[in-house]
Each structure stands twice: as structure tokens, then as C-alpha cells.
Amino acid sequence: MSDRLVRAITSDGMVKATAVTTRELTERARNIHTTLPVATAALGRTLAAASMMGNALKGAGASLTLQIKGDGELGTILAVSDAEGNVRGYVVNPHTDRPLRPDGKLDVGGAVGTGTLTVIKDLNMREPYVGTVDLLGGEIAEDVAAYFVESEQIPTACGLGVLIDRDQSVLTAGGYLIQLLPGASEDTIVKVEGGIMAAGSVTSLLRENDDPAELLRTVLSDFDVRILEEQPIEYRCYCSRERVTGALLSLGAQELQSILDEQGQADITCQFCDRVHHFTASDLRGLIAKASKKLPREDR
What we know:
Layout: E1 4-10, E2 15-21, H1 23-33, H2 37-55, E3 63-70, E4 76-82, E5 87-91, H3 108-112, E6 115-122, E7 129-134, H4 141-151, E8 156-164, E9 170-180, H5 186-199, H6 202-208, H7 212-219, E10 225-232, H8 241-249, H9 253-263, E11 266-269, E12 276-279, H10 281-293
Antiparallel strand pairs: 1-2, 1-10, 2-9, 3-4, 3-6, 4-5, 6-7, 8-9, 11-12
Helix pairs in contact: 1-2, 9-10
């Protein structure tokens, strides 16, 4: 099954949930950034979380950025989602590797370290919403749940998983977000917690069945789950020559002239998809002329 996202609510209206399967987009990210297993797992978890959080936004053109900045070897991990749940992202040090934990699992928390998780919601308003919380352990799922509790006061459970095959490719990937709605009783909380404990790990569930709707039904086994929406998602980068041109123009005529003098051309590589946008000397001269026309008269 291709990568998909589902949104659901329980029939009693007390719990809303989202789940994704993200094996293909995580594998694409691995190939783009040539990540080693620990970095693949960390980036894959972040991409899955960003996809579910971004899909909750309203309005065309809205986007969500999820940034994890730790003091571990991975450095910053960043993922950006559009309002449909399509994502892109990168990790600063993709070739990070660490010994397995004593329990045989990848040491994502150790590679992330201590630091902060920041969420930026761009809703096409004057200023984006920015919320930051301290990392709890760097395993990402519990950090995302803590963000919702601390910054948005929404009781949340998050499960994320990436399973790496022997050839370092992505075998399974995905996750879920389960959130209590106002009025949820203590009994509802107990049933949610019990279902999560009984279900086991995300990767084990996805190996058995990679349907995100079935993932939610398993985790919320004590509820009647009603699927509200199901849609495909993918690794999608929005970079274009037009956007890169705008970024170069923002440097100003003087900086562009320095690039022309020192390099004779410019090759701009997108952080998200590694696509290289080439600008010849002639292209740069044209940009310099355009940037010069935008200068106020007294600066000419």
C-alpha cells in the first residue's frame, strides 16, 4: 500500500485520532539524504509526526514546520508539512550512526540528545504561531505528545516508528496521534491507555498490516472508530527555479556581485530534495541588474 493518512473520531465524540503509513516517503528521504539507520529513524519519525500535525491545519497554503534541535550527533532535524500532510525534511548530520541500545533498538534518543522541539504554524496570517518545549528524551513521539500537552493543552498520545531492513532500507514506517476532546471521562482515558499498551509498537503493527485505518482500530480497540478522511501522502518538495531566484534577489545586488566575482556562477542546492539550481554568469548579471533597480534612489 502507498503512503496514506487517515483521520478518525470515536462514535462517542470523545477521542479524535490520526494515523499515517510513511514507508515510501521515508525511503525517499533516506535516498535523497543518504541517511544511516539512526538518522533514517529520527528523520522518518519526524516526517510522520509533521504529516499528521500539518494535516490538521485549515486553509490552502498553510504549512507546519517541526524542528527538533538537540545537542546530540544528529544536530537539527527539520520537517515541513503542507495542509494535506505531504512532507519534506532533512537532518543536519545524516551519516550519524550509534551502537544499538541494550534492548537491541536504534538509539535515536541518544543521537538527538537534549534540546528543544519547536512547532511553527504558518496559517497565512500576519505572524506564524510558534511553540517550543524542552525535549523529554529525544525519541520524538513522547516529545510531540508533550508539546500538545504543554503548548496546546490537548491530552495527546503519540506513537511513531521506523523499522530498518538489513540493507538499511526502510521496511515499515508510520505513526498515530490520539487526542482527547473536551468532556472526555476518566473511563475514556483508561480505555485509551489500555488500548495503546495492548497494541504494542507501531512497527510491529505495521508489519502485520500497513493500513493506517486498521492501525487506529487496533490501538483504539475499545472504541467504535469512524473514519472521517483517508488520502494519499508523499514526500513533496516545493522548490523551484522561481523560488530560488527570489531567494537570490533577496541577497541584494552587492552580495550577488560578490558571488559573480568569486565564483563566476551559482549552484544552489535545495536542502530538502538535493536538486541543484544552476545560475550562469549571465543569469547572475541579470539578477544584479534587477536587484539594483529595486534599491531606493539614495542607495544607488
